[in-house]
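User: Show me an example of a complex going from sequences to structure tokens.

Assistant: Sure. Here are the input components:
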Amino acid sequence: DAKTTQPNSMESNEEEPVHLPCNHSTISGTDYIHWYRQLPSQGPEYVIHGLTSNVNNRMASLAIAEDRKSSTLILHRSTLRDAAVYYCILHGSGNTGKLIFGQGTTLQVKP
Amino acid sequence: NAGVTQTPKFRVLKTGQSMTLLCAQDMNHEYMYWYRQDPGMGLRLIHYSVGEGTTAKGEVPDGYNVSRLKKQNFLLGLESAAPSQTSVYFCASSFSSKHPDIQYFGAGTRLSVL
């Protein structure tokens, strides 16, 4: 399974945008890029996913590099409730739905 | 719509005791998963099921058994608990393995084995 590399931690100021990077240099052509986040004392929750094109939804935006070897999760206006661990996960077609979690990026949002 | 419900939320066991964790989903999902999360770590897959009556091993299956007798329920059993099984256990479900295959997680069960 292709691996992802994320910074251990990041900080942001409330109401400012946050760019969370993820490197996945060994990504295969059929791997989707998924992002989940885990709020304190809760289970993970889906944020967004993409294959090649940039994606937007109500929670965030996902910017995917042209060579697909990296991606960036963008929170346009961070709030205190966005403080969480963010996981970047490659999801391949042969994984039978299994998600492989790394250690993720712990985002701290300062008021 | 309750989504994925895990019971119990907390449990303390003595070494050698057994217990069963229950996961129930009301979304008619085919796939269900059990993960464990140790402090400061990401989730690791224990067992999973691709449909009623089927189960398969994940990354860390030793010491656990599972059953999927009904589509909506996925049970995780510890026959003889060990301190190394102290962890937070998460259940998840998804419609299928076809993309985007979004997984929905329960709130977790915090288990301590003394």
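The lines above are the inputs; the final block is the predicted structure for all two components together. The mean pLDDT of chain B is 93.
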